[in-house]
């Protein structure tokens, strides 16, 4: 661990052993309890005016994402256009928070988004596995930023984390943060691979201690992506981290969130766990693609009073 | 020297005192009453109070001993009981009844590490929880004992094998105190069984109303009015009350009821998750 | 005002058709009584219906009907009794939304609880005991267990239909017939249950419902032709019943009050512990005999835990029981509100520090904000007496032994909670707690297979599970 990394916040663990002690000293998480709490929050009934308000907020929180081998400039341009005007038929519909693409697609997206206020995020650091030498990861990051990305979604080395080499993961995040420069750093924990809630809590704190601006659940490329209890746990982590160190960190669930109903459950979760301070696109994002169209359909239902159909919304 | 005849030997008599906290004290009242020519301690309410204190003090450790250990100790009691066969006979107890009492004691001794398996178990709740019910002793039991040795054994053994401690009001004082001697010489910790001799009508109400007694066994109360009065007094702290309907035949298979009546079922829940 | 307010989301009450008045359900028929009383919605004090007040002669009729029905009901093969109970369980499932709304109307509990907790457990209880009816000889209670006869059952107002299920399902499965008296302030769901019995073609007299107040309950438990008395309610009334039943040979089970300790160790899963504390004391407005009303928190984490608890309490939504987002509904009655208010004032008067989150209470109806008292000691009345409301007393401890000692330092012994991530500590503490139900790293969980009941002055006998059969068999 580097001295520069640890000097940013006071009271940080300053050796690998300390870091381990710190992370393992965090309170445990009871699986049944946290899942029950997340499910209970999911039973909140959000109707009428609250629903309209929630849908617009959710749209503004979307990181509209395409991360396919088949991505082309044409696809990315279309997606970026949609990010700016999700519902061409309704000018009151807000833009999304960001477009999220592979580094190679950053210049294409940047050309569309420049000056719009919609952020441009790029996955870097040998996404999704993270299995590459550090220099490659750093170069990946610097390229993306140089090409116009103002947000970097990095992956942690889950292998190192599961092997107990927390300092390795910490140092990588610090290095990527430095390479990302002014860009905001989202740290993907890949919670589906961390397997236990205790690990998710530790990884969340590890990422925040190392300087993450956001902690993000998943790449979307493994079997288990964002789940309500995992997101709840990460919201608790950012809440507790700010209370302890005074620095606010954002949360981004990604993968598997497809419906308005699901999105609203997450908003309820923020509302009742962290409160108003996180109810903003600066502090909460949905990593999603198909979610946006469902939000738009529900939005139209509320404004027109009848149910909407998919043919009336653009595919991307 | 003239050869003199051997003088006939004068027997050493036993003094029947109370059995409390592993000791054999006189009644604090200094009172005795005559039974078959013997002066027997006539227990007072204060003796009952002291006996409850002794029983309460002994209870956690007795309940906390392993079931195996309690079984061993109670089996030892049966051995000592068998050894006193002649003495019980000399007190007028039929040989067959002494045998039955010993056998009953052995039967109960064997229950120590089995009753929890029979009375408890896992409950298949509809959720991700470990859920286990297990019996625990109710605590301190006041026992108004029946007169026969078999009856006496049949009310004490189920109470103590399950981890309770008892204050027994005995109506057959010599046999009861002799049983106390058996207990005192067989590794049963002092205070686990306390035996008071005297009048049930005098002592039992103090046990029935005592705040630190958890259960009351009225098996030996013959007078139905007294039994009802005691039952009513026991309601003050919601004691568990055993009141057999009538004329229990102690030679019959007692079943597990006498034990389960003095057990509390505790159910523990715990979530299951990685 | 928060950025994200939830608009009102009321469950429709049109699913419940209330008649202006209800009679007694005796021998399969609804009939009038001489007197009546009114039952109100505690959330707005509006009268819901007028209900018959059963006098001694009505109770006589009900017991006689149950006695007559006992002959044939107890002679039915267990498999036939089972089918009646399965049928009842199914009807309860089909009518669960209606009954949930009804329960929230009459009781004041939030619809999310009546819908997600009470009604599913009610149906599950009947399903569970239905299956026992033809398997009693395998229950470990002897080769040929026999029913007792007529059971007189008196239930409280906190879980009206669930307590009815806990009483009636095992009684019927074992071949007994019943006369049940619901609580004075919550008679309606029992009367709707009577209709369920008719729908199921349950033979007349097997279930009889007599509504009324304390006197009606007294006639019932003291009735000479009742063989079994089962009561859930306060320890004081339980004591009176135990006295009145003395010498009669009636079998008695009592499920009474509590003052449960919820013990939080410094190695607890904190966020779940906070949820468990909230669930422990604010579930059902704290009208729960097994509520975790004494929080025992390890001193070393007390202040941070209390901060987290207060933060969480600030998100509790108090108000309209029928709103799907309501967490804490109405206090069941004026009398109960008065008692909660009085004990809380005593707590403050004795020097404990009182705190409630800011919360707007409706103008009409009976309401009490979720409240905690800190700086409470064992000597305070609010640490010893059952408040039966959304009021938590917070005490601290230093060592596990001290926690156990304080937890057990009460005449009650119904339930307890333990929060710790250390298995051996949980098991050791669970062993030493004198309570019938111990929830470790959870709280207020119920299941028909899991026996429930107290030590000491919390009563005797168990309800639920195999053990629950014992109370109804000879």
TrEMBL record, chain A:
It catalyses: 2-deoxy-D-ribose 5-phosphate = D-glyceraldehyde 3-phosphate + acetaldehyde. One of its GO terms (molecular function) is deoxyribose-phosphate aldolase activity. It is an enzyme of class 4 (lyase). This is Deoxyribose-phosphate aldolase. CDD domains: DeoC. Its EC number is 4.1.2.4. It comes from Paractinoplanes lichenicola. SMART domains: DeoC (SM01133). It comes from the Bacteria. InterPro entries: Aldolase_TIM, DeoC, DeoC/FbaB/LacD_aldolase. Belongs to the DeoC/FbaB aldolase family. DeoC type 2 subfamily. Pathway: Carbohydrate degradation; 2-deoxy-D-ribose 1-phosphate degradation; D-glyceraldehyde 3-phosphate and acetaldehyde from 2-deoxy-alpha-D-ribose 1-phosphate: step 2/2. Keywords: Lyase, Schiff base. It holds the Pfam family DeoC. PANTHER family: DEOXYRIBOSE-PHOSPHATE ALDOLASE.
TrEMBL record, chain B:
It comes from the Bacteria. Residues 39-242 form the Aldehyde dehydrogenase domain. Gene3D superfamilies: Aldehyde Dehydrogenase, Chain A, domain 1. Keywords: Oxidoreductase. It comes from Paractinoplanes lichenicola. This is Aldehyde dehydrogenase family protein. The lineage of its organism: Bacteria, Bacillati, Actinomycetota, Actinomycetes, Micromonosporales.
TrEMBL record, chain C:
Pfam families: Aldedh (PF00171). Transmembrane segments: none annotated. InterPro entries: Ald_DH/histidinol_DH, Ald_DH_C, Ald_DH_CS_GLU, Ald_DH_N, Aldehyde_DH_dom. The keyword Oxidoreductase applies. Residues 34-473 form the Aldehyde dehydrogenase domain. It comes from the Bacteria. The active site is at residue 255. Keywords: Oxidoreductase. Signal peptide: none annotated. The keyword Cell division does not apply. Belongs to the aldehyde dehydrogenase family. PANTHER family: ALDEHYDE DEHYDROGENASE-RELATED. This is Aldehyde dehydrogenase family protein.
């Amino acid at each position: 661990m580097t001295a520069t990394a640890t000097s940013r916040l006071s009271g940080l663990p300053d050796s690998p052993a300390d870091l381990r002690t710190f992370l393992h000293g965090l309170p445990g998480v009871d699986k049944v309890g946290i899942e029950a709490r997340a499910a209970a929050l999911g039973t909140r009934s959000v109707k009428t005016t609250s629903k309209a308000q929630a849908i617009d907020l959710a749209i503004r929180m979307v990181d509209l994402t395409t991360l396919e081998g088949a991505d082309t400039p044409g696809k990315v341009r279309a997606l970026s256009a949609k990010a700016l005007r999700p519902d061409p038929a309704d000018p009151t519909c807000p833009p999304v928070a960001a477009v999220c693409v592979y580094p190679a697609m950053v210049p294409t997206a940047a050309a569309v988004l420049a000056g719009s206020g919609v952020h441009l995020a790029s996955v870097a650091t040998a996404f999704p596995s993270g299995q590459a030498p550090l220099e490659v990861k750093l170069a990946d990051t610097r390229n993306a930023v140089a090409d116009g990305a103002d947000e970097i979604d990095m992956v942690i080395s889950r292998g190192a984390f599961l092997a107990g080499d927390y300092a390795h993961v910490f140092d990588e995040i610090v290095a990527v943060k430095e390479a990302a420069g002014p860009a905001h750093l989202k740290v993907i924990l890949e919670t589906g691979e961390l397997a236990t809630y205790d690990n998710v809590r530790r990884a969340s704190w590890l990422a925040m201690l190392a300087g993450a601006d956001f902690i993000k659940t998943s790449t979307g490329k493994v079997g288990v992506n964002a789940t309500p209890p995992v997101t709840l746990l990460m919201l608790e982590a950012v809440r507790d981290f700010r209370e302890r160190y005074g620095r606010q960190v954002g949360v981004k669930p990604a993968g598997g969130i497809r419906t308005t109903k699901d999105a609203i459950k997450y908003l309820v979760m923020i509302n009742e766990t962290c409160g108003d301070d996180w109810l903003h696109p600066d502090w909460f994002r949905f990593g999603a693609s198909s979610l946006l169209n469902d939000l738009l359909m529900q939005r139209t239902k509320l404004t027109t009073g009848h149910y909407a159909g998919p043919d009336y919304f653009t595919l991307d | 020297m003239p050869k003199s005849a051997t003088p006939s030997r004068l027997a050493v008599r036993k003094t029947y005192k109370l059995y409390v906290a592993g000791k054999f004290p006189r009644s604090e009242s200094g009172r005795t009453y005559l039974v078959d020519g013997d002066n027997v301690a006539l227990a007072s309410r204060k003796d009952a109070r002291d006996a409850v204190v002794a029983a309460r003090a002994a209870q956690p450790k007795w309940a906390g001993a392993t079931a195996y250990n309690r079984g061993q100790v109670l089996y030892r009691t049966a051995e000592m009981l068998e050894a006193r066969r002649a003495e019980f006979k000399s007190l007028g107890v039929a040989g067959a009844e002494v045998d039955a009492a010993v056998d009953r004691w052995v039967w109960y001794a064997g229950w120590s590490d089995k009753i929890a398996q029979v009375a408890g178990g896992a409950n298949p709740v509809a959720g991700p929880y470990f859920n286990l019910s297990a019996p625990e002793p109710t605590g301190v039991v006041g026992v108004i004992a029946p007169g026969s040795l078999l009856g006496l054994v049949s009310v004490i053994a189920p109470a103590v094998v399950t981890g309770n401690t008892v204050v027994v009001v005995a109506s057959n004082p010599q046999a009861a105190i002799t049983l106390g001697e058996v207990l005192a010489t067989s590794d049963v910790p002092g205070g686990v069984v306390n035996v008071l001799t005297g009048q049930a009508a005098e002592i039992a109400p103090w046990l029935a109303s005592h705040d630190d007694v958890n259960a009351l066994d009225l098996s030996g109360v013959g007078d139905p009015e007294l039994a009802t009065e005691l039952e009513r007094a026991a309601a003050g702290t919601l004691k568990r009350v055993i009141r057999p309907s009538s004329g229990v035949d102690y030679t019959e298979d007692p079943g597990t009821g006498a034990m389960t009546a003095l057990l509390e079922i505790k159910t523990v829940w715990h979530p299951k998750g990685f | 005002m928060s950025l994200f307010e939830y608009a009102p989301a009321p469950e429709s009450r049109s699913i419940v058709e209330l008649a202006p008045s209800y009679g007694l359900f005796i021998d399969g028929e609804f009939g009038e009584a001489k007197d009546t009383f009114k039952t109100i919605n505690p959330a707005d004090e509006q009268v819901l219906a007028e209900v018959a007040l059963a006098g001694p002669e009505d109770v006589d009729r009900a017991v006689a009907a149950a006695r007559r029905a006992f002959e044939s009901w107890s002679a039915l093969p267990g498999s036939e009794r089972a089918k009646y109970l399965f049928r009842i369980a199914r009807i309860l499932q089909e009518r669960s939304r209606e009954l949930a709304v009804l329960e929230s109307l009459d009781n004041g509990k939030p619809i999310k609880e009546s819908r997600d907790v009470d009604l599913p457990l009610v149906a599950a209880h009947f399903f569970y005991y239905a299956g026992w009816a033809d398997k009693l000889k395998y229950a470990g209670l002897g080769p040929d267990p026999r029913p007792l006869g007529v059971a007189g059952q008196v239930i409280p107002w906190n879980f009206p239909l669930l307590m009815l299920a806990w009483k009636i399902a095992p009684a019927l499965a074992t071949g007994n017939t019943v006369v049940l008296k619901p609580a004075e302030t919550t008679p309606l769901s029992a009367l709707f249950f009577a209709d369920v019995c008719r729908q199921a073609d349950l033979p007349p007299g097997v279930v009889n419902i007599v509504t009324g107040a304390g006197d009606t309950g007294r006639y019932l438990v003291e009735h000479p032709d009742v063989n079994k008395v089962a009561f859930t309610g306060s320890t004081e009334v339980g004591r009176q019943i135990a006295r009145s039943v003395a010498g009669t040979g009636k079998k008695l089970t009592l499920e009474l009050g509590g003052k449960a300790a919820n013990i939080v160790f410094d190695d607890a899963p904190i966020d779940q512990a906070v949820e468990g504390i909230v669930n422990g004391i604010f579930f059902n407005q704290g009208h729960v005999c097994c509520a975790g009303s004494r929080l025992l928190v390890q001193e070393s984490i007390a202040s941070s835990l209390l901060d987290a608890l207060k933060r969480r309490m600030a998100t509790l939504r108090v108000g309209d029981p029928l709103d799907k987002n309501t967490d804490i509904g109405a206090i069941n009655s004026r009398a109960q509100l008065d008692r909660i208010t009085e004990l809380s004032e005593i707590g403050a008067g004795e020097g404990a520090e009182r705190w409630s989150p800011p919360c707007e209470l409706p103008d009409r109806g009976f309401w009490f904000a979720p409240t905690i008292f800190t700086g409470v000691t064992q000597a305070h009345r609010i640490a010893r007496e059952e408040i039966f409301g959304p009021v938590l007393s917070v005490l601290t401890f230093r060592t596990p032994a001290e926690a156990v000692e304080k937890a057990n330092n009460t005449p009650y012994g119904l339930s307890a909670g333990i929060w710790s991530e250390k298995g051996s500590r949980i098991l050791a503490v669970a062993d030493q707690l004198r309570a019938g139900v111990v929830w470790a790293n959870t709280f207020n969980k119920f299941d028909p297979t899991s026996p429930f009941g107290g030590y000491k002055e919390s009563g005797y006998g168990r309800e639920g599970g195999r053990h629950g059969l014992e109370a109804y068999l000879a």
